Amino acid sequence: MSASAPSPPRTLPVRSSSEIGGGTTPSPFLAARNLRANAYLDLARTLTNYRLLAVLLLVVDLALVATVVWQAAQTRIVPYVVRTDRYGNAVAFGPADRLADPGRALRVHDLARWTRNVRTVSTDPQVQRHLILDAYAYTGGRAVALLNDWYRHHSPFARAARGTVTVQVTSVLALPESDRGWQVQWLETERDPSGTVRAEHRWQALITLRVDPPDRVEKVVTNPLGICVVELDWTRLPDTDGDTP
Question: Whole-model pTM above 0.70?
Answer without folding.
Answer: no
